[in-house]
Inverse folding.
């Protein structure tokens, strides 16, 4: 499976967390839940990894693989930053912003996407 990156990945994440807001939680990297339609709840960095997991691949194995492929530390913020093509400051502003709504807006702003609200 080819890796999805940059604006294409940002669009997929924004669509996911806007259409299924229960699948977005900026306080959780990634977990499974019965509350969202897809059964996954994640922050923006978590969704960047989720959209690049191979079928049947666990989240930690995906982090290890993606970290190696991207020459990044195998953790959500490092891998998410590389997948989205963000600098350290922009990634920190996005990944550690408090609240789901401000995070969705920041993602849209960074990639020149329509405001999801």
């Amino acid at each position: 499976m080819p890796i999805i990156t940059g604006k294409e990945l940002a669009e997929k994440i924004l669509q996911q967390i806007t259409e299924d807001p229960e699948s977005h939680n900026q306080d959780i990297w990634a977990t499974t839940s019965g509350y969202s339609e897809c059964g996954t709840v994640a922050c923006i960095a978590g969704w960047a990894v989720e959209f690049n997991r191979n079928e049947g691949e666990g989240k930690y194995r995906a982090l290890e693989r993606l970290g190696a492929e991207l020459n990044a530390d195998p953790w959500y913020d490092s891998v998410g930053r590389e997948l989205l093509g963000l600098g350290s400051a922009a990634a920190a502003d996005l990944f550690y912003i408090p609240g789901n709504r401000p995070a969705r807006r920041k993602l849209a702003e960074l990639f020149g996407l329509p405001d999801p609200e």
